[in-house]
Structure formats: structure tokens, C-alpha cells
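=== RUN LOG ===
request id: a7f3
mode: sequence -> structure
chains: 1
length: 467
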Amino acid sequence: MDKQFRTEQDSVGELNVGADAYYGIQTLRAKENFEITGTKISAAFVRNVVLIKKAAAKVNKDHGLLAQDKAEAIIAACDEILHGKHRKDFIVDAVQGGAGTSANMNVNEVIANIAIERLGGKKGDYSVISPNDHVNMEQSTNDVIPTAGKLTVLSLAAELCGELGRLQTALTDKAKEFDGILKMGRTQLQDAVPMRLGQAFHAFATAIARSKKRIETSLSEMRTINLGATAIGTAINAREAYFSHITEELSALSGEKLERAADLFDGTQNVDCFAAVSGALKALAVNLSKMCNDLRLMSSGPRTGLGEIILPAKQNGSSIMPGKINPVIPEVVNQVAFLVIGHDVTVTMAAEAGQLELNAFEPVIFYQLFESMRALTGAVRTLTENCIVGIAANKERCAEWVNRSVGIVTALNPYIGYLKAAEIAKESLKTGESIKSIVLREGLIDEKKLDEILDPLVLTEPCKLHD
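=== RESULT ===
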């Protein structure tokens, strides 16, 4: 059966649009112009654009700016989309020219055609409901798109921060579990001084808590929106009733406490707030990757590496080497970190590249920022569930490295001096004799005092020097 079409017209000309499609001519042009990534605008972003359309229709209806039947049809159409219908009709690429106009019009056209049918009309008869005049009433792409972007960041961040909280708890639990296990601390991959394995995991938890707080702090700017600014900040075409009530209405619908930007020109042309969120995500990626590097090092071996911890075995590690198990969960988190750090460069460049009264590069900012947030959420979840909670300590190996190291000699500096301690360390390395044995043999410190100095708790906690 041949596909049926309807003919639509815009200021550029005519196009045949699929008769069953809820999108229209402007969406179809965008699809043809922007076959870029193969990734469509995200469902979360579409949802938030639709929320804005619903809020606008409600305000316009309540204040007599839009006929009640048209407004109610638009609101009902928005609700259909918010309940998960019509996803296949949002077809424009995530990366597009035009500062997001294509994404805005894709939503406008789908809502309009659903509303037209609800009023008894046929798709494409925009004399019933116009995507521009009715669905987009009082709005501009330039205030809708950044506002939707901010709402999307807030929704994605809620899930990410929830996963970070779970990771912090899992790391804290491991810190308590491993608190009594002495291990060798290392700097520059060389033996340093003893510490407790629990202290290593507590440091991981602290870094994650700090990263979470940094992200939450950056989100405060996401609640300041430019809705009502319309094209550049002058609020042209936005009437007083709409301008005064749209932020309040959107707050109620979204569940976020939003406020209108004090300077709408700044709120329309500058997107450094997204660069700030991206920077916080990058800092999280750095901390996650460093932690995963440490987990891979501490678990290395298991026979010929450090072998201080045992990671959960999640899958075969080789297609040729029987019995090999690789640290696949930390490895995937490392890779997500690399991805996020690269995305941050893109967001930074796009934020800087805006000119005059508008930044036209929000589509790529959102594409990269949303992907960073989703990837980090998945990475943190699998790290917690498939790695951290199942880590076991190799107590014997930890003790072996401490006993074989000369790092404990550092604790003797206040009693015998750096030069003498260095001399003892060299002798121990050369002969294999223990530090304790050399000190006792030379009569430098009596055994009771030496045992006190080398007590694991004394070695691993801040304390005053002994007399």
C-alpha cells in the first residue's frame, strides 16, 4: 500500500508530510537538514518543553489570552505526550542549527496536530490550532529551549545525586569493615608509611561526598529561568498577564521552585550556568576515575601484583587465558570519566562561542551535558552494585607488604633523627633484616618503647610525638 501524504506550506515553500505524522513541515525540514548524530532529542528534554507549553496554555487560558477550547485542546495534547504517547513523532536530531528552533517547532507541531484532532479537525489544518500562534503563544525558542534545558538538568541530576548517595554509603560501610586492616601507604607508587585499609575507603567516600555537594551547588543556577524574555530579553509579544504568571505556573507543574532572571538579557545570551554544571560533572569524573585507578592497582595480580583487595568476579577476563578475571567495572567507569571530560571541553567551547544577544549552540551543550549525566548515573550505579559492595580485603597480603616495607622507619625520625633512620632503611633494604631488629640490635630504643612507636594505631592516626 502506498504511503499517504498531506501537503503543508511554510515561508520556504511546500513539502509532503506523511498523512499519519503528528509533526509538520518545519519538523520535516529539520530532519532533512540535520542528519547529524543519529540521536533524537531526548525524551526528558521533550517532556520539559511540553511542560512549558502546558504552563503557557494554562496561563493564556486563565487570563483570556487564548480561547478556552483551543487552550484546553492544547493542554490535553500536552498531557497525552506527558503520559508517554507520540514519542515516535519527535524526530529531529539532538544537534541542530537554529538555536533549538527545530526542537521547539517539533514539539509545537505535534501538540498542534493532536489538539486539532481533539477539536474535530484534520492534521495539518493549522487554521484550527496553529503551532506558532497558539501553541507557541507568548513564547520564543530563545526562552523555551534554555528553560527546558535547565529543567532537564535538574531531573537528570536528581537521579545522579541519588546514585552518588548510595555510592558514598557503600564506601563508608567498607571503610568501617576494613578499619582494622593495616596496609602500606604509597606515594608516587613507592612505599611510604603504613595506613589502614579503611582509611583508603573513607577517603574515597569523602571525595564522592564533596563531588555530590559540588554538583548540588551548581544546580542552584538551573532554577533561575528566562521564560518570558522571548527573543532577546525585551519580552516582545509577551503580554503582562503571561509575563507575570508563567514562572509561577511552570514551578507548580514541574515541582521545582523557579524564579525569573533579574536580567533577562543576561539570562538569554549567557549559558555559563551550564558550563558550571558541566565543570562539576567533570570534577566528579576525575574523582571517580582516580578511585577506580586505585581499585585496579590495589587488586592487581592476584599473585604477581599488589593483591590487597579482591574485586567481585563479574565475567571472564579473556578469550584465550583461562581463569583470568579483569576489573571490568572500574574500567568502564574510567571510560565514562574520559567521555565526560571530553564533553566538558565541548560545553565550554559552545558556551564561550555565543555572540551578542543569543547563544546559538545550546543544542550541542544539551546533547553533551545530558549524555554526561546519564552516563555518570549508570557508571556510579554499576560501580556501587557490581563492585564496591562486593569488595573483600586480603588481610594477609596487606600485612605482608607492611612487614616487608621499610616505610615504618619514618615513625622513628623524631627519636633517632632523619639521617640515622635513613641509614637503618638502607641497611634493611640491603640485608633484608627488619627495621625493628636493627634498632634493637643497635640499642637505639628499648623494645617496649619501640613497640609503642610502631603500634598500628599510632602509625595511622594523628598524634603527639612521644617524649
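=== NOTES ===
Residues 141-177 form the longest helix (37 residues).
The beta strands are 5-9, 14-18, 182-187, 190-196, 224-225, 259-260, 309-310, 392-393.
=== END ===
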